[in-house]
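User: Please predict the structure of the protein below. I'd like the answer in structure-token form so I can feed it into my own downstream comparison script.

Assistant: Understood. Taking the following sequence of 548 residues as input:
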Amino acid sequence: MSQQGDRPATTDDWWGRLYDESARDTGPAEAPDDTIDDRFDSAADTLGAEGAADATTRAGYGQAVDAIGVDDEDDAGDEEDDVDVDVAAAAGSGPVSRPLAWWEARGAYPVIQAPAPALASPPTIVDTPPAVPPPPPPRPQAPTPAPSPVAPAPLTPRPRAPWEPPPAAFDPSDARPLPGAVDPAPPRVTTPAPAPAPDPRTAAPEAPTPPAPEPAPAAPLTYVGDGPPTYDAEPTALPATEAEALGQLVADTVLDGARYGTYTLRAASMRGDSARYRGEPRRDALLTARFGAGPSALVLVAVATGARATEGAHLSAADACRWIGGAVGRSHSRLGEDIRAGRRGDLKSGLHRLTDRTYGKLRARAAELGREPEDYTASLRCLLLSADPDCRTRVFFGVGGGGLFRLRDGAWQDLEPLLPEPADIRGEPVLGFGSARSEASAEQTPEGDRLTMDLEITKPPGPVVEDPVPPPPEPFRFRASVARPGDTLLLTSVGLAEPLRGEPALGDELAARWASAEPPGLAEYLSDVRLRVKGYADDRTAVGVWEA
């Protein structure tokens, strides 16, 4: 294209001239003047016949330009905008008009902006329609492929070329979308679609529901009966002592155990609640000893309780356990043979003699201390157990109060040997004291001869007895029994025997705890035998034997 605006014959000829290497460069324009008509003609020739205008139209357009007095210089800025506006006005108001080229259409080409990144989850959009008149029906267009879900871009005018007439006021209805652009959709209210049901074939397996927490185990019972005991459950005060008598101190609690043959042994002795509160020593004494070795060994368990409300009661109980233990130890070989052979008569007589010797020593000890025999004494209860697995004979003997129980098939049995009532003790009446022959014996001899004279031989008067006759000593107790598998033998002092007989709930609770064939451990056994009962606060000593 030359600056003079020479029109080529045809478009193809112009294309060849433009890219013909043999053609010379046009160089600067030779014409001294470069008018708007020349520029218009050059642009029209370049873009084709569609944009060509006839001479009349160009003449009218040139007259309008000459009428407003615009020179040919290419002014910039506001002056050029003003000229274009005036030219458009003159062209629109003149009597001669020409068809507008396709680039002269009113409006502007829409500019499509880059779509914003899609959100993870589309929010609910509630649009309010603008208060504008409804747009005219859309122009018929060729079918286009389905638009992609891109948000409509705002329409903005593009820069205008120098040869284009100024557009009228921008009207969105005149904008023609480019191919592939999306027409603005009417405002609508959108709501998120419900989530589809998961496919059980492809859905991930659900995590297993954690099991419900198990209820916390109930706190173990510490007492039975209608209410809690009066005293505290734990020791409060220690017994008083002197520097020279430290060997006479006894511990608050003693615990021991063993296993021989077919049985398991558990033994515990503890201060009562009242003694713990007042700071008194434990009156119960416990001795566990084994004599010999192997199957011929003999196990002795001795439980003694000192007299209540007497000084040094714990010392007399300890002496009784120590002396009976020495006597059994010296005769353990013979005693073991009698137990394995089942000689109950020999056992009863022999153990009776050993018990009498022990109480004889206690009376001698009371005399040494200058005390009465009844003040320095103790009740004594013992068990003899053979270590031979083939021997299930269990021997009990002793003197004084306490308890001997057996738990068999979930029920308690009281094995305490019964003492005969005084009225049941009968014998031959003493001559002269209530016999049927007392009156006749004064007058005749046993052969029937009557006395004929009274020699009046005087007899010395008997001793005057002013103090009441002391009660007879408690009888000796003995029992030998054969244990069965699953039995539990329980030997107790008075402090546990009385609540077992007086409070059935205590026996039921111990039976439930010891229902298992496995014997309890030492700590568990101690917790069981210290189960308290209101109204019973004496020392407790218990020896349990669990048969396998």
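That's the full token string. The longest strand covers residues 298-306.
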